[in-house]
Specification:
This is Amino acid ABC transporter membrane protein 1 (PAAT family). Pfam families: BPD_transp_1. There is one protein chain. 77% of the residues lie in helices and 0% in strands. By secondary structure, it is mainly alpha-helical. The protein has a single domain, classed as MetI-like fold (Orthogonal Bundle), CATH 1.10.3720. Helix 8 (145-158) packs antiparallel against helix 10 (184-213). The longest helix has 33 residues, at 11-43. The protein is flat and about 70 Å long. The relative contact order is 0.15.
């Protein structure tokens, strides 16, 4: 029989796991966005070598399973004398891996900016750096809110993989609770429901932000 008392009894452990998930997610979102910006600027650079490095980064980290990257950092690097705790491993791995996806979205958004806008700015004598900083990047960020939002939602869901390196985030906490109570159905049903509600709320907020930023623009959507 379905027993909700298990959830109430271990609610504190779930909350502790959620706090770890939330903090790892927040730091990783910031880190991946910054990585994405740097790689994007590399991709659109007029320097061929720098541009190729940027594209190589995107292609590399988009084609390596995330769990392999996590295992390499947590289990592989110690062979070289580099020891990183599970929490830092999670933030580092997510920032590096998701940064590649952010870079690709930002690059595409920058390339979609109308050339006439750039040419108009150049006619006023603005430098390339100033044009990107004041004109191109704000337009690209506005257009990339939804795809970036989807990436960040997926990042939050991907934190569940970090339980494989002993980080007791939400999924890790659920595994411990299920093992202690022998009630995996209730525990994982609650976990499933929690992630569903969380992603729905985040999707709604992203849609609201997108609508607000584009309220003065007519779109096809």
């Amino acid at each position: 029989m379905f027993d909700l008392s298990i959830i109430y009894k271990y609610l504190g452990s779930f909350i502790d796991g959620f706090e770890i998930t939330a903090s790892v997610s927040a730091l990783s979102i910031i880190g991946s966005f910054l990585v994405g910006l740097m790689v994007m600027f590399a991709c659109v650079s007029s320097n061929k070598l720098v541009s190729n490095i940027g594209y190589a980064y995107i292609n590399c980290f988009r084609n390596i399973p995330f769990i392999v990257q996590v295992f390499f950092i947590f289990y592989g690097l110690p062979e070289l004398g580099i020891f990183i705790d599970p929490y830092t491993t999670g933030v580092l791995a997510l920032s590096i891996a998701v940064g590649a996806y952010c870079a690709d979205v930002l690059r595409a958004s920058v390339l979609q900016v109308d050339n006439e806008v750039i040419e108009a700015a150049q006619s006023f004598g603005l430098s390339r750096k100033l044009i990107y900083q004041k004109i191109v990047l704000p337009i690209a960020l506005r257009n990339s809110i939804r795809p970036l939002g989807s990436i960040f939602i997926n990042l939050i869901l991907t934190t569940s993989i970090l339980s494989t390196v002993t980080l007791n985030e939400l999924t890790g906490a659920a595994k411990i609770i299920a093992a202690e109570t022998f009630r995996p159905f209730e525990v994982y049903f609650f976990l499933l429901l929690f992630y569903c509600v969380l992603t729905y709320i985040l999707s709604f907020l992203i849609s609201r932000v997108h609508a607000r930023l584009n309220r003065h623009f007519v779109t096809e959507n």
